[in-house]
Amino acid sequence: MTGHGCFGHYxxxxxKEGSEVCHxxxxxxxxxxxxxxxxxxxxxxxxxxxxxxxxxxxxxHNVVDRMLCSERNWAAVASFCETVISQxxxxxxxxxxxxxxxxxxxDGVAEGEHVTxxxxxxxxxxxxxxxxxxxxx
Length: 137
Ligand SMILES: [Zn+2]
Fold this sequence. Notes:
It contains 6 helices and 2 strands, in the order H-H-H-H-H-E-H-E. The protein is mainly alpha-helical. It has one domain (2-109). Helix 1 runs parallel beside helix 5 (71-96) and helix 3 runs antiparallel to helix 5. It is elongated. The two termini are 23 Å apart. The structure holds zinc ion. The site of zinc ion has 7 residues, from loops.
């Protein structure tokens, strides 16, 4: 199941500052799980996600299972991830413009390099364009 691996790229991007202090809420453990389930910064987005999933269990394992259940679930999780990533990256750019900010480029991806982070092509479809989803950053 490629979905797990691809979702992992999302989680990696969300949690790429993992083990550092969360810039959003000050929590000392900024991991993908923290962002997804705990961080107060994303409570509104999390509420929408839970409503779509119909399941408040935001453990990574459960979320991956739920998002592979339906295209709607997938879209909701992808939307959450995209919102978090775009806002985190915007905040990151602000920090990068601050000469006193610590370096946080730890993911090995050069600035401007395009990274495909998400693909979704369930076996049941023969038309990837219909169900497939591809995001390039
Ligand atoms: Zn946080």
